[in-house]
Amino acid sequence: MTFSLRARYAIDSVPINQLHGSSSAVDAEKELEFFFPEEKTFALIKPDAAKTHKGKAVFTDVNISTKDLQRTLQVKQAGFSISKVKEQALTREMAAQFYKDHEGKPFFEDLVNCMTAGPSVVMVLSKENAVEEWRQLMGPTDPEEAKKVSPESIRAQFAHDILSNAVHGSSNPEHAMKSIAFAFGELDAYWFPQGPEKHLHCLFIFFLDVF
Ligand SMILES: Nc1ncnc2c1ncn2[C@@H]1O[C@H](COP(=O)(O)OP(=O)(O)OP(=O)(O)O)[C@@H](O)[C@H]1O
After folding, report:
1. I need a surface site. Which of 12, 32, 105, 138 has the fewest CB within 10 A?
2. How many domains, in total, are found in the chain?
3. Model pTM score
4. 60 C-alpha vs ligand 1 centroid, how far in Å?
5. Residue set of the binding site for ATP
6. Looking at the domain assignment, is residue 11 inside a domain?
């Protein structure tokens, strides 16, 4: 004989109706968003890496199914949704503005040159704790250090050197919003619907009485 979850818990003298299941895919999405809010981060594949790896590598575990897939690096078990992606060639003014915190440092001119050497791939990535997790996935700034402490990271695998280090990721949520506005416009930074790439895979069930 089989019992439903509700029936089984009722038999165990736990108040009935303590389970909830989303009544539709739309409700499930709303409830998931409520309990597991997604964060957005800004990610950029720098010109050298975008050129070198163009067309031969893919984001394997990201929910993306567009032709832009061809232009991204291979990232395993990342679990990000790519909400926005496009190719963009930064001007010198844009690159200098983007990295203005580093103005005056000895590598600043080289950094601007590196960022304007060709088109970059810019993306908005969504996931719970996206900012921190993308930075972990990138690895340390210097690929030599990345190879030692985080050999699976993107920089350990794809960076050329500390300057031409394959990828950028926002360092905090506020920077992420500013960079998204910079690349995609204000509206996109503060509101945009989930992209068509985001698929709902799970049925959401939670216990109402556990807290
Ligand atoms: N010592 C250095 N020599 C040459 N280039 C450097 C050096 N330090 C940093 N850079 C370049 O400047 C960028 C910004 O440096 P930052 O210290 O903010 O590192 P990061 O936060 O790991 O990188 P990013 O801001 O690109 O995500 C680096 O990604 C790298 O391209």
Report:
1. 12
2. 1
3. 0.73
4. 26
5. 46, 107, 135, 141, 155, 165
6. no
